[in-house]
Specification:
Elements (H helix, E strand, L loop, with lengths): L1 H34 L4 H5 L5 H11 L9 H10 L4 H13 L2 H37 L34 H33 L5 H6 L1 H12 L9 H10 L4 H13 L2 H11 L1 H28 L16 H21 L8
Helix pairs in contact: 1-6, 1-7, 1-14, 3-5, 3-6, 4-5, 4-12, 5-6, 5-11, 6-13, 7-10, 7-14, 9-11, 10-11, 11-13, 12-13
Length: about 350
Amino acid sequence: MNYLIEFLTNAFLFTNSIAMYLIIGFFIAGILHELLPDDFIRKQLGERNLRSLIKAAVLGIPLPICSCSVIPLIGALRRKGANKGAVLTFTISTPITGIDSILATYGIFGFLFTAYRLVTSVILSLIAGLLNLIIDRSSEEKPITESSCCCSCSCSIPPTQGQEKKQFSFREALKYGFGTLFKETAQPLFWGILIGSLIVTLIPQNIEPFLRENAVFSYVLVLAAAIPMYVCATSSLPIAASLILAGVPAGAAFVFLTAGPATNAITIGVVDKVLGRKSLFVYLSTVIAGSILFGILLDWFFEINRINVKEIVHIDDTGNPVKLLFTAIFLILLFKNLWELRIKPPAGT
């Protein structure tokens, strides 16, 4: 009974820490979706140069596209002439961030960790794009089928024909942010909160010294779970926070936040099919090696500055009535969408 109460308490604390930021993020995401023309992204990524890579990385930061929705975009971008390096950059940069995830990261981990996550995602995606331009000079385009979608809901594949710029609609912005986008992330968010709460509740406190003394083991364990598993940038946050609270080094939690959203078993297969084996090698090696390197740097930063890693996790602010109101709204939307989707276990588990 005590474990159940502790589990429910942890689940509520996780939800309360991100709900307000997610609601604001979904709202901004809906506005962005309405403001950007349907073919805007494709038009920016055609040139085979550093400029197109930078565009791909920068465009990927705010866009509300998870590791599910980016899958059909890989094929659509290639069919419209985007170069492989830019597509790979976009494939890595976009799922790691997103306006909803950025705000939720700030809600749990604060400004410093959020800025580090943003900067490193851009660097990783640019490195992958540059390496791909150097290693893979082939121009063959391969099609992608709609069956590559990994979500329970339908993936939004951008139209392949040119369209006139649509008129801005506030109603459509809300419909996309709190309808389409929320529905795409409802299940992974739910499972992320549950898994994170279980980790905090069940992992014994005396395991912390072992985890800190065997950081390599923590990194390998996290990578083994993160790479094949479908977890979006937002739903990975409660799990990463729970890992830190359980004693896992911040660097290992950072690896999970990077490798988890950037990869999953289906995306790996699609990258291989659409971009080729060389691009797949660049994709995986950059994400794995880069996330580990930046994770080690993060642990080093905390160590030399004598920062208690657990203090960066903020999940206990229950005295703020505004946040509690947003939490209530978020829970209503969450369970409404879960009911409509008839909740299923997370993909890749």
